[in-house]
Design a protein that fits this description.
By secondary structure, the chain is of the alpha/beta class. The chain has a single domain (8-189), classed as Rossmann fold (3-Layer(aba) Sandwich), CATH 3.40.50.1470. The chain is 37% helix and 22% strand. It has 6 helices and 7 strands, in the order E-H-E-E-E-H-E-E-H-E-H-H-H. Helix 1 (27-38) packs across helix 5. It is globular.
Length: 191
């Protein structure tokens, strides 16, 4: 069975501030909050422009981070955290919203392009592309709505009804990736 006792850095992408807190673009930060909560961890402010929670999953040290910067600046704080906690890119997980996946579906992968996602673009510019991604499906806007506007809007009332389970599933996917490895986690969560 895959096991890694080296520390992992898990970054939930989003935008800072109350106005963005419950938007589709902040699903990564929502998953980080759930992950910390389910592991009874509290957030503290870190000098890297992030709020972090530290805990262990099956004996493996985890640093879960919600960045206090805008999406297109995600790389800098992520690099600061990776340097501070001595985490290599192969132990970095970015959780982010994904337009090309239906709402409430999850895909886990390592590497690949940024697909126009400014948070991934910023991280990849610093780390290269070989880090893990947990892609949280938000679907595409219906009609002529600009995708850039769509991601910054709150979830619909119908989506909000399923959001808690979706976020919990994202947190479980993080734990499975760290505990069991990518292949097993993909089999379990890639729907």
């Amino acid at each position: 069975m895959f096991r890694s006792k080296e520390r992992w850095l898990v970054v939930g992408l989003g935008n800072p501030g109350a106005e963005y807190e419950r938007t589709r673009h902040n699903i990564g930060a929502m998953v980080i909050s759930q992950l910390a909560n389910s592991n009874s961890a509290k957030f503290t402010s870190h000098k890297s422009r992030a709020d972090i929670a530290e805990f262990k999953i099956n004996g493996t040290a985890i640093v879960a981070a919600k960045l206090r910067c805008y999406m297109n600046e995600s790389g800098g704080p992520t690099k600061s955290l990776a340097d501070y906690f001595k985490v290599k890119p192969d132990h970095l997980i970015a959780i982010h919203d994904e337009l090309d996946i239906p709402f409430a579906a999850i895909r886990l992968k390592i590497g690949g392009g940024d697909n126009g996602h400014n948070g991934l673009k910023s991280i990849t510019k610093i780390f290269g592309s070989d880090y893990f991604r947990i892609r949280m499906g938000i679907g595409r806007p219906i009609g002529a709505q600009d995708p850039a506007d769509f991601v910054l809007k709150p979830f619909s009332s119908q989506e909000r009804g399923a959001l808690e389970d979706f976020v919990s599933k994202g947190a479980s996917a993080v734990e499975a990736l760290i505990t069991d490895g990518l292949d097993i986690a993909q089999t379990r969560f890639n729907s």
